[in-house]
Amino acid sequence: MNELHRLIALIVAARRMVVFTGAGISTESGIPDFRSPGGIWSRMQPIPYADYLADPEARRLSWQRRLEMEETWRQVQPNDGHRCVAVLVAQGRASHVITQNIDGLHQISGVPDGQVIELHGTTRRATCLACGTAAEITAVLAHFEANGRAPDCASCGGLIKTATISFGQPMPEPEMARAEAATLECDLMLVLGSSLTVYPAAGFPLLAKRNGARW
């Protein structure tokens, strides 16, 4: 039995599969990954969360980078990998998609938002760091472009940030809890496009394996 036939057999036999995805599934959509040669981190250093909180210039640089990527985010579309995952979910073969990606392409491909667990957040939304109020990303970008800074939260005056998880920022507890529950309930975890080197996200496939799931 070759590897493709083995994969098909595993999927057919699974009663509750979870798909775990990383940056590699989105590169064919035109989104560069982070760690490979030529990736985003080879061209620009990430901005730590503590710097974002403390330094107005770090916040300006963060939003400038996000503004420069807006054209990319508007144009990118799901590729065959995303569409195959969406089919697995639509057929009831996969209960959830746990993703390290911030691009929102699983939802655009048709996976219901409630079945996507975004461990590292999403760049398609913004949120207040103080009270958690959501902010519409296009309005925030328009304000930044006009004023050179992001607006303060309309509800509490707190700092607005893209709804992504930065270095040093705590992982989102609700998403981590949902991911753990889905992992412990699955009997097969399908890992796509992840090097499984970034923790704690990479711990979920290992947890699935320790709990008896195949992957």
DSSP helical segment count: 10
Main sheet: strand order: 3-2-1-7
Q: Let me know the average pLDDT.
A: 93
Helix content: 40-55%
Coarse morphology: elongated
Largest sheet: 4 strands, parallel
List the secondary-structure elements in sequence, H or E.
HEHHHHHEHEEEHEHEH
Protein model, in words:
The two termini are 17 Å apart. The chain has two domains: 1-31 and 79-120 and 171-215, Rossmann fold; 33-75 and 125-164, SIR2/SIRT2 'Small Domain', CATH 3.30.1600.10. It contains ten helices and seven strands. The longest helix has 13 residues, at 56-68. The mean pLDDT is 93. It is elongated and about 60 Å long. Helix 9 runs parallel beside helix 10. A hairpin with a 5-residue loop joins strand 4 and strand 5. The protein has helices at 3-13, 40-43, 49-54, 56-68, 70-75, 80-90, 105-109, 137-147, 173-185, 203-210, and strands at 17-21, 94-99, 116-118, 121-128, 134-135, 160-164, 188-192. It has 215 residues and is α/β, with parallel strands linked by helices. The strands form two sheets. A four-stranded parallel β-sheet has the order 3-2-1-7, with helices on both faces.
